[in-house]
Amino acid sequence: MSGKHISSQFDTELNAISTRVMEMGGLVEVQLRDAITALSDMDSEVAQAVIEREVDVNNFELELDRDISSIIGRRQPTARDLRLLMAMSRTTNNLERAGDEVAKMARMVKSIIASGEARSLPISELHTASELASQLLRKSLDAIARLDIHMALTIIKEDDLIDREYNGFLRKLMTYIMEDARTISPSLNLLFLAKAIERVGDHAKNIAESTIYVVKGEDVRHASVESVESLVK
User: Fold this and answer.
1) The pTM is what?
2) What was the pLDDT predicted at 97?
């Protein structure tokens, strides 16, 4: 078998892995959107559907882990190809964890609906943070699919926007609690929801960092934004 044929087969396998990772990411995006819709509409059925689909996200992770391990074992890739497979594995792991956060959100939504106490609280303000998180997740998947390190750098910087939204939401909830102690319980539920959204943004950032790892060969997971920017430029 010629080296060219082997290389072609390897490229086909890598493309198949990338396609499956994008499908997994799309499912997590839908889950996040539906969890927020369930909160906005006070819809327990939508929240329950999100919870039930969590198993699909988990199955994606198991299948991709198996396929990536198989490729590494059979092909024994080196250099950039190995980094790409490792990055795909990290991406899968981050998507699964983001999916866990979304499932937690759905369970919390069901609890909030059952309590009937959250209608007077600033639920709508979670939309901004959730939309930011969804956009970051979408862009992070696009960045790793294209190996676009400049987009990855933008994502790393934009993660701070979600952090600011979370901190602002926290301050507003504290105001509600101080004005009416009866809002403590539902406010805490909303706080956990906001934290889950913020963590989805963190996972998007992690995927962006993996993109830079593939292209530059540098692990920037604990690096400052300034040092990452210097590496990319």
Assistant:
1) 0.92
2) 97
